[in-house]
Amino acid sequence: MSKITDVSGKIKKSVQEVFKGNEDLINMILACLFSGGHVLLEDVPGTGKTVLAKSLAKSSGLPFSRVQCTPDLMPSDITGSSVWLPSQQKFEFRAGPVMSSIVLVDELNRATPRTQSALLECMAEKQVSVDGQIHKLDNPFFVIATQNPVESEGTFPLPEAQKDRFTMTLSMGYPDEEDEALIITSQNSTTHPVEKVNAVVTREEILDCMEEAVTIHVEESVLSYLLALVHQTRADYRIAAGVSPRGSIALYKACQAYAAIKDRTYVVPEDIKKLALPVFRNRIILNSDSMLKGYSAEKILMELIEQIPLPAFKAHV
């Protein structure tokens, strides 16, 4: 059993004590973590986005902070700011919530574009620039952002540059009847179940997993399949802007981590096919004609994924 399989198994078991159902959603979020990326959870209120994020953070044993986005939130409320100390006649940097390992940015689309952009440098370069000084962020640094896709009042759509910083965009979905019954009965307590979650792994183990993920083998035919999907998004007449090289890299790395979570030392074509939609869904821009005709990015991507046949594949040993 690989290090990633062992660590992810411990985290999943802990998280599932609180978050019921959809085990593969947890696998994909862990793939984002182990590949050094970030994740955007997009679903209606009350589906467990915050509970999942908090239980994952507590299980990992990493420092955790939360940012509740509102229209009056300022960039310095996220990154931190320099404060003048009269007694010492100097400025002192007071760190913001982003100076943590796992940062939950709740309802990201309620923050103004100016505040949303404060996360760009953090997510891409894992550093914060304040008053000409660069402050390095923790390693690992993992942003879990949430947004409600059905509300428009009081919200600000994420710009394309911001969407591109997320490795995956995932939807929670509703639990089935059996899981929902477990969710309801778990509330028979004066404290929320997530408060009982304890760390089951260490920072060092997670860093080891991140190092292991990049060693997972990707056969040439599998890489060619990935590139075929990417180039198809750039050639389709309905798409104004296809997947960027950053998107290609995100899919490649996510599939390496996902394969390791599945206890494999190699990526299979099915990994590419499965993760292409969550990785690419917020990375393409439809042209105006396609939008007028009622196309969605998700629908077009699903068509493109089905059009390209899986390559012949021989397992790497």
Write structural notes for this entry.
- By secondary structure, the protein is an alpha/beta fold.
- It contains 14 helices and eleven strands.
- The strands form four sheets. It has a five-stranded parallel sheet.
- Strand 6 (127-130) and strand 7 form a beta hairpin.
- The mean pLDDT is 88.
Features:
44% helix; 14 helices; five-stranded parallel sheet; 11 strands; alpha/beta; 317 residues
Write the layout of secondary structure elements.
Elements: H1 3-15, H2 23-34, E1 39-42, H3 49-60, E2 64-68, H4 75-79, E3 80-85, E4 90-95, E5 102-106, H5 113-116, H6 118-125, E6 127-130, E7 133-136, E8 142-147, H7 160-163, E9 168-170, H8 177-185, H9 203-213, H10 220-235, E10 239-241, H11 245-261, H12 269-280, E11 285-286, H13 288-292, H14 297-307
Parallel strand pairs: 1-8, 1-9, 2-5, 5-8
Antiparallel strand pairs: 3-4, 6-7, 10-11
Helix pairs in contact: 1-2, 1-3, 2-11, 9-11, 10-11, 10-12, 11-12, 12-14
Our estimate of the beta-strand percent is 15-25%
Spans of at least 5 consecutive residues whose pLDDT stays below 50 are none
Radius of gyration, in Å, reads 20 Å
Q: What is the number of beta strands?
A: 11
What's the overall geometry?
globular
Average pLDDT figure: 88
- Largest beta-sheet details: 5 strands, parallel
Query: DSSP helix count?
Result: 14
Please write the string of helix (H) and strand (E) elements. Answer: HHEHEHEEEHHEEEHEHHHEHHEHH
Please give the order of strands in the largest beta sheet. 2-5-8-1-9
Q: How far apart lie the N and C ends?
A: 14 Å
> Pairing-aware structural class of the strands and helices?
alpha/beta
Helix content: 40-55%
